[in-house]
Amino acid sequence: MKSPFVVKGIFISALLLFGQTLSAQVSYFPPKTGDEWQESSFQEFPYDSTYTDSLLGFLEEKHSKAFLVLYDGKLVLESYFGTFTQDSVWYWASSGKSLSSFLTGMAREQGMIDIYNPASDYLGSGWSSCTPQQEEAILVQHLLSMSSGLDSDVPDLDCTDPSCLKYKADPGTRWYYHNAAYYKALDVLEAASGLTLNQFTAQHLSLRTGISGLWIDNLFVSKPRSAARFGLLNLNRGIWDGDTLLADQNYFDSMTHSSQNMNPAYGFLWWLNGSDTFMLPGSSFRLPGSLIPNAPADLYAALGKNDQKIYVVPSRKLVVVRMGDASGQAVAGPSSFDNELWGHIQRWLQLPSSLNKPDSGNEIRVYPNPADRFINLPTLAETPELYDLQGSKLNVAIEEGRLDCSTLKPGVYLLRFRKGGRPYSVRVMVHHP
Predict the structure, then answer these.
(1) Is 143 strand, coil or helix?
(2) CA distances from 429 to 193, 373, 383, 411 (A)
(3) Measuring CA to CA, which residue among 357, 190, 365, 175 is closest to residue 279?
(4) Are 178 and 140 in contact, with CB atoms under 8 Å apart?
(5) Tens digit of pLDDT for each residue in 26-36?
(6) Which runs of E-coded beta strand occur in 213-335?
(7) Neighbouring C-beta atoms of residue 134, cutoff 10 Å
(8) pLDDT at position 389, please?
(9) Cα-trace Rg, the chain
(10) Closest alpha carbon to 93 in 342, 340, 326, 329
(11) CA 152, CA 175: separation in Å to the nearest integer?
């Protein structure tokens, strides 16, 4: 009989083959050492430069220290605020959970950990106050998915003493954001590998990617560019410039897809956008809607207290990093700042002034842009064709000089046509109010 991990992996792989992109296929990676990092040209990644100051002003107003945007691995925007610099270090808070999930996947691939084994196989018996039978039922994957069933009604959710780890529900039947359960997942990684977190990270990750930093009291601390490197590594599905750090794509997909039925917005220590409902830290209620409505549906994120953010958007080959103090009230994981920030990012990316740059350098306009139902084509445009950003030609109706975009999903598309014998490409935005 196949393990649930294998069955789930087969199912996810089938979904990917029928429409989802297996890999963002990043084309650039910065050197592992030094400060060299190529910048993306405006032709590669257009944006509204007149709105950049407003975006950065919003970030500064919200107590940010660092903000980086990567497209296809290259830097689009890198900004630091106050006395914070490129060489300053900052804590990831719970964004480090996603890093530890990736490290666990590496350990699993090397045969150190089986996430479908009981956690007591690595921690020994008596690591909790549960009965032996209850403790044996808590698998490593339950610790990674916040579904251990351990009691959250305790004075200190960070306490890992056995007296603080009490039975509440059967594993896999209740989701609750429980730091102590996560800390035990870190203990599993150390026990299984025979290495400290810092040793494992340095030997298996840092030397191969340039992601440098230190674990201090279960928190990872690094320079902002290391956070960007980690986002880039995950954007390329565990491969760094041809070096495969995580070959097991079943684990990667399980990590970045819903890991249980209670909170579809949570994978293995990653937050996921695009589901119909979600749950938040400190609550056992499911809320309707997507986690970050303003963000692309395929976004997944490492989110930490006081608004530490590492966003990964495969469909757009984007990595976005924000470090700093809390934008408002200090909360763990997701906050209202996520949606505010993505509202500004979308505004920065989608204005017509940033989407109407033709390949030839001569100004060619299509309107309206953004569009809802129709896009009016340029006069005398010949053989117009519409493509998504993955290069697939789309079947859309074109009549009387207008392109029907009413059936398209909201997003950015590439309109190609010829005029006067010369080829043109124009990026167009579809937005349905």
Answers:
(1) helix
(2) 48, 11, 20, 6
(3) 175
(4) no
(5) 999 999 999 99
(6) 214-216, 219-222, 239-240, 243-244, 271-272, 277-278, 287-288, 300-304, 308-313, 318-324
(7) 17
(8) 61
(9) 23
(10) 326
(11) 10
Tokens of 77: 């925007």
What's the first-to-final CA gap in the chain, in angstroms? 49
Please report the pLDDT score of residue 390 as a whole number: 60
Six-digit token string for 9: 């992996």
255, two tokens:
């990590």
Residues of the chain with pLDDT > 70, as a percent, come to 90
- pLDDT confidence bin for 364, thresholds 50/70/90: low
375 touches 356 (CB < 8 A): no
Residues in the chain: 433
Give how far the C-alpha of residue 177 lies from the chain's centroid of Cα atoms, to the nearest Å.
18
By C-alpha distance, which of 37, 3, 39, 67 is closest to 348? 67
The identity of residue 116, as a single letter, is Y
For residue 227, give the nearest of 297, 311, 294, 286 by alpha carbon: 311
φ, ψ at 102 (rounded to 5°): -65, -45
| Helices first, then strands: H and E counts in the chain | 13, 19
One-letter identity of residue 27: S
User: Phi and psi for 375 in degrees, rounded to 5?
Assistant: -120, 125
The one-letter amino acid code at 118 reads: P
The better pLDDT of the pair 371, 47 is held by 47
